Amino acid sequence: MYSGTIVPLVTPLDLDRAVDEASVDRLIESVHQDVTALMPTLSSGEGWKLTERQWRDMVAAARKHSRGLDVLVGIQLPETAQVIERAQMAKELGANAVVVTTPFRVEISQDEIYEHYRSLRSAVDIPLFVYNEEAVSGNTIGLDALLRIFELPDVVGIKESSGSAELTRRIVRTDHLVPVFEGWENLLLEAHGIAGFIGPLANLEPQLCNAMLVDPTPERQAEVDDACLHYGVLEDDWYRQVKQELCKRKVISTDVVAKED
Fold first, then answer.
1. What CATH number does the domain containing 86 carry?
2. Residue 260 included in any domain
3. What residue ranges are annotated as transmembrane (predicted)?
4. pLDDT tens-digit map of 218-247
5. DSSP reduced 3-state for 150
6. Please, which residues have CB within 8 angstroms of residue 248's CB and are 6 or more apart in sequence?
7. N or C: which end of the chain has fewer CB within 10 A?
8. End-to-end alpha carbon distance in the chain
9. pLDDT tens across 75-119, in order?
């Protein structure tokens, strides 16, 4: 059962936009003692923008330098068939689980979303971490559909990034065994009963994230909010902002981001 702070790793790139393995190693070294698992190639890792080569190389580097932590691999692709193919690759690369968003469509039914995850679980024997968000996919998963998805085999967690603390609380209160992780730093105080946190601030301040989970007070939330403001974590290009700070700290070699579509 996953819990605590899981870090959604940024994807360090060199000047040619190839994955910089040495920077991946230093990044994991900088956080590994304060996190419970690694989550490469998700939104903070620019997962929806990475080429297949960049994705493969980042997953391989995270596995190689994991320091014993589980590697939960993000998959952000538009269609179910693409996700299934990528999940098989993740399994071959040694991923402990895949972290999967919904198909990229605004007009999609909750039944279609359920079928997306059911098809994935039927096709590839690898644990599933659900990613509930809207910024990339254009849609979110409702509570009833989530509970159906949670009944599928080996659903090991949910990154709840809908932006609704009320929905997060409802998911936590409902009878199921899936660990619920808040995906927004600014909602941690309101997200009662969560198993942990997954967000970009963990690349920079994992100890602060842990402190917020242990002692979720208004004062601690204010400290988290100040850190997010300082590092630009809640900006639209948060991954670029996090990379810039990591570059200043000499944890990664460049602040280059994946090529825009």
1. 3.20.20.70
2. no
3. none
4. 999 999 999 999 999 999 999 999 999 999
5. helix
6. none
7. C
8. 37
9. 999 999 999 999 999 999 999 999 999 999 999 999 999 999 999
Please give the pLDDT value at position 80. 98
User: Does a structural domain hold residue 255?
Assistant: no
Residue that the structure tokens 């923008």 belong to: 49
- Our count of domains for the chain comes to 1
Rounded Cα distance, 160 and 27, in Å: 24
Please answer whether residues 11 and 236 qualify as being in contact, where contact means their C-beta atoms are separated by less than 8 angstroms: no
Query: Given the structure tokens 């730093």, which residue do they identify?
Result: 185
In a domain, 111, yes or no: yes
Q: Which two tokens stand for residue 28?
A: 């994991």
Tokens standing for residue 59: 């997953």
In a domain, 258, yes or no: no
Look up the domain containing 170 and give its range.
4-248
The whole-model pTM stands at 0.97
- CB burial readout 50-60, b (16+ within 10 A) else e: beeebbbbbbb
